[in-house]
Design brief:
Elements lengths: L9 H20 L2 H13 L2 H23 L11 H60 L9 H6 L5 H13 L13
Length: 186
């Protein structure tokens, strides 16, 4: 008997589709050269690449040492200048490939960060509105005791994102004793 796929609420399915679209759009924006760079970086990041590179280096050194010991002229005698040059060039290309791929991955992460931030702010505003409505209901409902709840009143006010950011920056700029930075916002 096959396991049934759980039915997700529509808002969760919408969120999953939105995130999938973000990733799909990011992939579609990549040009041919960018896709080649990403494939090369993915290939370089696998254990097979390390094994292949180690094998090639060992063969290179081994063949040259065998040629040297047999009296033949090796194509790259110790200290293996050609090998060192090739590995230096390979290191340069690998670095550029990784940086290029990382830059593109950072763009996607930035979009996800922005989405998360906007959803968090929206969620906070909705929570404040719900608290406000509950407090209003308590005040207006004849069967509920009307009392002052200062904490609920404070939570019913949506936070100003700019004020929160300013408070974070201010607390981050305030050094504690011993040169530490205080990142806690009260």
């Amino acid at each position: 008997m096959a396991a049934e796929t759980p039915i997700l609420p529509a808002h969760i399915e919408d969120t999953i589709r939105a995130i999938a679209k973000l990733h799909a759009d990011h992939r579609e924006e990549a040009g041919t050269l960018q896709r080649v760079v990403e494939r090369l970086t993915a290939w370089i990041g696998r254990p097979r690449f390390i094994a292949a590179m180690t094998t090639i280096i060992a063969l290179w050194i081994g063949c040259n040492l065998i040629a040297l010991s047999s009296g033949s002229k090796p194509w790259d005698a110790p200290p293996f200048n050609w090998l060192q040059g090739g590995l230096g060039l390979l290191a340069l290309y690998v670095t550029v490939l990784i940086l290029t791929t990382q830059r593109r991955d950072d763009q996607l992460a930035s979009h996800r960060e922005q989405l998360t931030l906007e959803l968090a702010i929206l969620g906070e505003q909705k929570s404040a509105k719900i608290i406000s409505l509950l407090e209003e209901l308590r005040r207006d409902h004849p069967h509920l005791t009307n009392r002052v709840d200062d904490e609920a009143a404070a939570m019913a006010v949506a936070a100003d994102p700019q004020a929160v950011l300013d408070a974070i920056k201010e607390s981050a700029a305030t050094p504690l004793a011993g040169g530490e930075i205080d990142l806690v916002v009260a």
